[in-house]
Amino acid sequence: MEELIYLDNAATSWPKPDSVYSFMVEFYRSCGVNPGRSGFDKAIEAGNIIEDLRLRLTRFFGGDEAVPERLCYTYNATDALNLIIQGLLGNGDHVITTNVEHNSVIRPINHLVRDGGVEATYVPFDDNGFVDPDDIGRAIKKNTRLVMVNHGSNVLGTVQPVADIGRICKEKGVLFGIDVSQTAGMVPINMHEMHVDVLAFTGHKSLMGCTGIGGLCVRSHVDIRQTRSGGTGVRSAYPYHLPEYPFRMEYGTPNMVGVASLWAGQEWIAKSGGVEAIHAQEMKLANRLVDGFKAIDGVIVYCCDSLENHLATMTVNVDGLEAGDVGIMLDVDFNIATRTGLHCAPLVHQQIGTTGIHGGVRFAIGPFNTEAHIDAAIEAMTNIARRARDMKSRKQASVN
To answer: For the whole model, what pTM was predicted?
Structure first.
């Protein structure tokens, strides 16, 4: 069977490193018990990996190492973002976000605007796909409680200037949160240096973990209101959910397979030279892919005039074809997996004008892609664009 060329790594990284698969299985076979709920050795061992990973991820994100318990596990970034947004905003508050956002930010905010008395401002991006920090600053008002920004676009691949935005928020006394779903494990993140108060991450993309695990990292000066309650495995006689971190943000039995996968993912990233080395390798391929696409008559590439401050993710279209049809051709005819549609980021597509053709075709490179994969994608898009031109010529001939 022909090898699948997987270029959908912005949705989830695949395959995972062999070391991640191995550790997940070995850990769950040997220690797949409920951590912190009992005092026997296996439960303690399971608890130890949870706490070790808290500290590792706190350091990885440049959080407050003195309080690693403020690294809290969730199901994914969407879960974490809901905890952050619903736990920080209330009636009369103003929130600023951007047109770069994923629905995991847009929808919780819109629900609070509709149902919770919150006011929201959406800041657009420029022609290159970047938000101007000064636009954020100008949007801040007396009742602005939170600025929430997608660090890396899952559509355009642009990495936003969060350090500059964070500096403005700090000067204005406004909390600053970022969604690092696309950037965690891809580019360096330091909450202190970027003036970030809280971040949300997912494990199944460039952190090389499995699906169903994510989290948030909360700086020591920030407290998020509890919006859920349930079991914690400790202090069971206390009638309310525990107010201290990590229990404040964690509910029920944790995803131990997910924790194990993230732990192994941290090992793999370190052994691979760190995020800078991984990113450099992927961007080399991204430059090759963009250059190839730009040379094809009829292929439209969005916000890739320069790949500085970019991820190895890009969205394109073929003139005369709907995005979904291009994706089907890539899959059926060339065995290339991409993601088509609006990518859960409708405001991006509204601004770049692709909603009329149902979005775009996203190519997202991962650490296991090769130059041969890139060349195959360029050849496939060349073929598809030629078909589109031929179809257009035939239609014009029939009219004449």
So the answer is: 0.95
